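step=encode ok
step=design start
structure_in=
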């Protein structure tokens, strides 16, 4: 005989805090974005997303057999990755597309990472270590070096000392910020001034397909990835 008690699902006391931190990070991010000074407060996180974007170009360049020369991160939150890659057109397209899509993938991975609970501080430490490595091998302009160094030191310190709610909060904020910035950066491509350089414009030169088509495709893929990630990681 099946009793009512037997059908009750065991309560995961860690599930609610994890979901709460992600929701709180989303509320804070959206609230700040609607204030006059919000963009200044969130400026470091925008630069973090730029680092993710440029490193995605660099990693894809290595995967297709190329060589990364340098990465620059600029005060206006733009960036530039210099690399030597094979002239095979599809490979060049992969490297060019990897920036915006890579940022979206990173946002999804960070959302998944927020479910790690007690491992959050270790994930933060790993991100900090990766930033330190990129500083050694790729970052070559002074402003970019200062930004990446500051982030690397902060994340390595948090990864070592900031356990518990602090790690959960920081990881959730990074996840939300990278996810939102990835989508926002793609949206901006639709209003880029004529002649201004962008990844979508570079794809247009490579494949003779309008930049708006590439931007729309990247936006659709990013939205699907984000929505799928949120659905799969939702608390049941």
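sequence_out=
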């Amino acid at each position: 005989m099946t009793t009512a008690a037997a059908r009750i699902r065991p309560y995961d006391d860690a599930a609610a805090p994890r979901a709460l931190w992600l929701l709180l990070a989303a509320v804070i991010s959206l609230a700040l974005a609607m204030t006059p000074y919000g963009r200044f407060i969130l400026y470091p996180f925008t630069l973090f997303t730029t680092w993710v974007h440029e490193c995605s170009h660099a990693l894809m360049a290595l995967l297709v057999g190329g060589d990364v020369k340098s990465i620059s991160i600029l005060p206006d939150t733009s960036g530039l990755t210099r690399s030597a890659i094979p002239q095979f057109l599809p490979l060049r397209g992969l490297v060019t597309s990897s920036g915006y899509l890579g940022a979206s993938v990173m946002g999804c991975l960070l959302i998944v990472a927020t479910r790690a609970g007690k491992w959050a501080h270790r994930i933060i430490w790993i991100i900090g270590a990766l930033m330190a490595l990129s500083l050694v091998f790729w970052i070559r302009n002074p402003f970019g070096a200062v930004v990446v160094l500051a982030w690397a030191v902060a994340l390595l310190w948090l990864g070592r000392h900031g356990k518990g709610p602090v790690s959960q909060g920081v990881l959730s904020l990074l996840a939300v910020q990278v996810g939102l910035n990835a989508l926002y950066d793609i949206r901006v491509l639709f209003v880029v001034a004529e002649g201004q350089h962008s990844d979508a414009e570079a794809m247009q030169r490579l494949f003779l397909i309008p930049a708006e088509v590439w931007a729309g495709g990247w936006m659709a893929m990013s939205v699907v990835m984000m929505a799928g990630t949120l659905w799969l990681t939702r608390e049941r």
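step=design ok
step=annotate ok -> The two ends are 26 Å apart (CA to CA).
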